[in-house]
Design goal:
Helix content: 25-40%
Number of strands: 14
Structural class: alpha/beta
Strand content: 5-15%
Strand order of the largest sheet: 11-10-9-13-14
Largest sheet: 5 strands, mixed
């Protein structure tokens, strides 16, 4: 059975907002807090009525097109809050748009987190609706809610409608990576490339593929932080507005029940999220963000847990980039509840994990069914039997991950099917110092890149880039693409888009800029990757490795670009590695701050 949520008694008393608006111990400060909130038409009676004040953390803006429709959805959230006898306070969040922010939107995840922590802690809010969508908005919001620990519920914005190009599905991101191969091969020109990319974005909403946006909103649901079925509803569908209303209603109820993120975000919830991620073919960015949420709520979760808990989970969702379909078909086939029901029947999830609607995960998904078995497969007849992440380590890094659900038949045949060395490969390394160097030199014939070469990128991590960019999914030189070689092994200390189908080895920790083994690698070195042993090593002696490290230290360490903004310098000085969630190291000690202290008065 699920853990029962706590109940406040009597209803309407002991609200956090009363410290601002109805504090008999300090009428002078109550007057100061009240008077300015009345100046646009609210009444003192409303604010002192005992009705919960519910924040709407607005992540939609013109700078964040994937989330912009939240500006309209918030109206339905407000309706739900009002009908449940609450008061809505909407406020803006720092914008994070994956395709718009340079050098990378990941740089802003922790900045948005910090900003939202201050709002949730320092303003008169009893609960909050977290509006999420584009990749980093989801973890930023949940990380903040976990830190402050006031009642919180996630409303995702939903994916775009299916994109189409010449009768074929054009999935956001995924079709772009394919189209750039076509450009390199000379089969299309730049103008058609732009048309293909635009065709993949036909409506409001986030990526319609199982990229990081769809993944993270699915995992918010798998964690129990959003209402059942919320994640998969396409942004323009009427059901999206309907669940926005229901979310507003539930936001008021969880305040009265005193149901907080710490009640939901337990070890069982995180294990459910890991299992769900494998089953949906989720993004390689998921461990970075889920591990960050766990650290902020105080649950122990390691990168090794992703292989231990999720590696042998089968791939059930036939959705790009690991499959064929897009968001509309996935929703109509049953969405995450249907997937979780299959995992429930196979006894692979914790049925008793509590969720934000007050019921257990098992109760929520027990009656869910697959409506289209070509889109969502049964557990017994999956697309792939093992779809989780393989965690690799060796003298190249302490950890990196490889997404096994996107290993193509061609890639497996060329690199993983040697009968004398199955599931392992060796090759000559070619090393690029960041994305600019890659684009400048990938077609340089002097590099002698062939079909067995391993491509490395370093300087792309949390410190080196900074923020860690999605740049590791490097395509081969144009001359190889023209021969039909569309992928080579790619290894790096950065990330790649969740919409990419490249089976890259990513998120290497520690990164080169933090002294990781990638900083010691040289073009021409032989490197061995062994999936059976989970090993990744430069094939040089320990003595040579030590010699290179000594030389690196003598040179002052790995060189990376200078800071360009104050925030880049601040984050670089305190950020942790990708394996540990890329959190701000000093921030993780602040937990449940709404329960441990009361913010001081401002006058």
């Amino acid at each position: 059975m699920a853990k029962k949520s706590k109940t406040l008694a009597p209803r309407g008393k002991n609200l956090r907002s009363q410290l601002w608006f109805d504090n008999p111990d300090n009428p002078g400060m109550t007057a100061i807090y009240l008077e300015r909130y009345l100046n646009f038409g609210l009444t003192g009676a409303e604010l002192r009525s005992g009705k919960p004040i519910i924040g709407i953390a607005q992540t939609g803006s013109d700078l964040s097109p994937c989330n912009r429709h939240h500006i309209d959805l918030a109206k339905r959230v407000r309706d739900g809050i009002r009908d449940a006898d609450g008061i809505a306070f909407e406020f803006p969040c720092h914008p994070i748009q994956e395709t718009g922010k340079r050098p990378t939107a990941a740089l802003d995840r922790n900045l948005a987190y910090l900003s939202l922590v201050e709002v949730l802690y320092g303003y008169p809010l009893d609960g909050v609706v977290l509006t999420t969508g584009c990749d980093k908005t989801t973890p930023a919001c949940i990380m903040a809610a976990a830190t402050v620990n006031i009642p919180a519920i996630v409303l995702s914005g939903g994916p775009m409608l299916n994109g189409w190009w010449k009768g074929e599905r054009a999935g956001s991101g995924t079709v772009v990576w394919k189209a750039r191969e076509e450009v390199a091969a000379g089969r299309i020109d730049d103008a058609e490339f732009m048309e293909i990319a635009a065709a993949s974005a036909p409506s409001v909403g986030h990526c319609n593929t199982m990229g990081t946006a769809s993944t993270m909103n699915a995992l918010a649901e798998a964690l129990g932080m959003s209402l059942p079925g919320c994640a998969a509803i396409p942004a323009p569908y009427r059901e999206r507005g309907q669940i926005a209303y229901d979310t507003g209603v539930r936001a008021v109820e969880i305040v009265h029940e005193n149901l907080r993120p710490s009640d939901i975000l337990t070890r069982k919830a995180f294990e459910n999220a890991i299992v769900a991620n494998s089953a949906i073919g989720g993004s390689t960015n998921a461990p970075v963000h889920i591990n960050a949420i766990a650290r902020h709520v105080g649950v122990k979760l390691s990168i090794e847990d992703w292989e231990k808990v999720g590696y042998d989970i089968p791939l059930l969702v036939n959705m790009q980039p690991a499959g064929k379909y897009l968001g509309e078909e996935y929703f109509r086939a049953g969405g995450l509840p249907a997937v979780m029901n299959e995992l429930l029947k196979a006894k692979r999830i914790h049925a008793d994990a509590l969720t934000v609607n007050g019921k257990s995960m098992g109760e929520n998904v027990r009656r869910a069914r697959i409506a289209d078995p070509d889109v969502i497969k049964s557990y017994g007849k999956p697309m792939k039997k093992q779809a989780g992440f393989k965690v690799l380590k060796g003298n190249l890094f302490d950890s990196a991950i490889m997404k096994t659900s996107v290993i193509s038949d061609d890639f497996r045949k060329r690199f993983l099917s040697n009968p004398k060395d199955n599931n392992a490969f060796e090759g000559r390394a070619v090393v690029f110092e960041g994305t600019e160097d890659y684009h400048h030199r990938i077609d340089d014939p002097s590099l002698k890149i062939d079909e067995s070469t391993l491509l490395f990128m370093r300087g792309a991590g949390a410190i080196g880039y900074p923020g860690s960019a999605e740049v590791v999914n490097m395509q081969p030189p144009a001359r190889l693409i023209k021969k039909g070689i569309t992928s080579l092994p790619c290894i790096g200390d950065g990330r790649q888009s969740g919409t990419s189908g490249s089976p890259s080895i990513l998120n290497a920790s520690p990164e080169a800029a933090a002294g990781g083994g990638l900083a010691l690698l040289k073009t021409g070195d032989r490197v061995r990757i062994d999936l059976n042993k989970g090993a990744a090593d430069i094939l040089i002696s320990k003595a040579e490795l030590a010699k290179r490290r000594k030389a690196l230290q003598k040179a002052g360490g790995f060189e990376y670009p200078p800071h360009q903004t104050p925030w880049q310098e601040i984050q670089r000085g305190m950020v942790d590695q990708l394996a540990d969630g890329m959190v701000l190291k000093p921030a993780v000690k602040y937990q449940r701050v709404a329960q441990t202290s009361v913010p001081r008065d401002n006058h």
